[in-house]
Design brief:
Strand order of the largest sheet: 1-2
Number of strands: 4
Order of helices and strands: EEHHHHHHHHHHHHHHHEEH
Shape: extended
Distance between the termini: 34 Å
Number of domains: 3
Low-confidence stretches: 108-122, 182-211, 441-451, 461-472, 477-498
Strand content: under 5%
Structural class: mainly alpha
Largest sheet: 2 strands, antiparallel
């Protein structure tokens, strides 16, 4: 069940409703409306919809949590407004391109009206000098009020962090007092002296949840340093996979910085990093969660990379000495060495668990023979009487045939393109064809060797001109309409039994 973004009624099948009732024929327009109804709209780099807030955060959902004046329903409503405005802007851009199939929805025009009504500079300036002066004075007051709101919000966030830390500290002291009352401890040492006669060591900080404190994104020095580190990691020609990896790496580093900077009045000087006991407490808290050992190692390695970058090129606001930087980096490297053995044990156990779930050879042979027998019959059936069910059966048997030979996962076949299969069909060797999947899930550019008959390749792509305009699309992308001697494939293959 989904709510239509145009008529606000709830339907179980929204796509046919958009086509039949609202006459939405443009595929891109329908995709945007369905994404808005499902809530699957990317809100990264989206302006905050809260009145008075002019920020454009990288993560709108996390930014809305900092608005303490909003309730849970208020944050949900604000997120819905932001998604609707973004879809409206994309529809407006799509309308401006003048596509062959026109955009018929009126979502963009309504959003434009809201935006124009909210923007004080959207209207034409008044010709009267007094009116213009009054407008300028009001705009200056509005800017000043916005700065005050930003400052008060940051102060409120800092006070909230200190209050949470105080509450957690009081809870820890109460638990320690209760534990001392339930058992008879030995006689305490003299004041100011430890058990061995030396000075009393400082009490280590309490281990808190590493993600309980968000990253202090209001500090310009931290944001600038992370931006430079992100550019250094991306390089000059970043791939989509590299961007995803760098985004994950920055998330781990921000979790570490947020934990270390909690309760710090001036985090812009980076002195909060010079706390080895807190670093060890953060690593110990990672071990107490459900996080696997390799993931914990990723956290520590990413933090070590960031500290190396900070040590080599410290910003002007950094007040850490070279000795302190060496101490911090040495502490993190020691934590990485300590977890290395547990990572190896975890990898061995994971490998043993995977080997226990291997498919028997007899099942693979039966799948290979059954699929090889069914595929030619299905191709003949599709030539004479094409149907969607037969096409899905063909895709399932073809995927099972390739999987039984190569053993690759589903991501390899999902990223298989028509151009790669066409290149394999022009191979001089008629006994086997090597399909190079450039966007494989397991490894970029990994080859997939499949022993396919020449007749099967010829039946799949007998007329290469039908696919000349789609040679960069996925092998499973396209419509369900058969073409001259070949088959134009549809999304997401499903393995169907014999």
């Amino acid at each position: 069940m989904a709510e239509c973004a145009l008529c606000f009624n709830v339907y179980s099948r929204l796509a046919p409703h958009l086509t039949a009732v609202h006459k939405v024929a443009n595929s891109d327009e329908k995709r945007l409306l369905l994404a808005l109804a499902a809530g699957r709209v990317d809100t990264r780099k989206t302006p905050c919809p809260v009145p008075g807030c002019r920020r454009t955060p990288a993560r709108l959902d996390r930014h809305l949590r900092q608005h303490a004046e909003l309730s849970t329903s208020g944050r949900k409503e604000a997120m819905g407004r932001a998604k609707r405005r973004k879809v409206a802007r994309e529809l407006q851009w799509l309308r401006s391109t003048q596509p062959a199939i026109p955009v018929v929805s009126q979502l963009a025009s309504s959003s434009e009206g809201e935006r124009d009504s909210e923007d004080p500079e959207a209207g034409r300036p008044c010709a009267d000098r007094g009116c213009r002066r009054a407008t300028e004075r009001i705009q200056a007051q509005l800017t000043d009020l916005g700065k005050q709101v930003t400052k008060m919000r940051s102060t409120l966030l800092q006070i909230t962090r200190l209050y949470r830390e105080l509450r957690k500290g009081e809870g820890g002291r109460r638990r320690r007092k209760r534990a001392r009352r339930t058992r008879s401890p030995p006689a305490p040492p003299p004041p100011g002296r430890g058990a061995a006669g030396g000075p009393t060591p400082p009490e280590p900080p309490e281990a808190l949840e590493p993600t309980a404190y968000p990253f202090p994104d209001h500090v310009p020095a931290l944001n600038l340093l992370l931006g430079e580190f992100e550019g250094y990691q991306l390089g000059s020609e970043p791939t989509p996979r590299l961007r995803n990896n760098v985004t994950s790496k920055l998330g781990r580093i921000k979790a570490f910085l947020g934990y270390m900077a909690r309760g710090t009045a001036e985090p812009g000087d980076f002195l909060f990093l010079n706390q080895p006991a807190r670093i060890r407490a953060w690593a110990a808290r990672l071990g107490q969660t459900r996080m696997a050992e390799p993931t914990r190692q990723h956290y520590l390695k990413n933090v070590a990379q960031f500290l190396d970058y900070l040590s080599e090129t410290p910003p002007a606001a950094c007040q850490l000495s070279s000795t302190a930087l060496v101490l911090i980096r040495r502490e993190v490297r020691a934590l990485i060495r300590g977890i290395r053995r547990r990572v190896v044990v975890h990898e061995v156990r994971t490998k043993q668990a995977k080997e226990s779930r291997l498919i028997p050879k007899a099942s693979l042979v039966r799948c290979h023979r059954t699929a090889g027998r069914k595929i030619p019959a299905l191709l003949d059936s599709l030539e004479s009487n094409p149907s969607t069910r037969q096409q899905w059966r063909f895709y399932g048997f073809l995927t099972g045939y390739l999987t039984s030979i190569s053993g690759h996962r589903c991501g390899v076949f999902q990223n298989l393109t028509i151009q790669e299969v066409e290149e394999a069909s022009r191979s001089p060797d008629e006994s086997a064809y090597v399909i190079n999947v450039s966007m494989a899930q397991v490894r970029w550019g990994s080859p997939v060797a499949c022993s396919l008959s020449h007749s099967l390749i010829h039946c799949l792509f007998s007329d290469g001109s039908d696919y000349h305009s789609q040679n960069k699309q996925s092998l499973w992308g396209g419509s369900a309409v058969p073409k001259q001697g070949g088959i134009q494939l549809v999304p997401q293959p499903v393995l169907v039994g014999p």
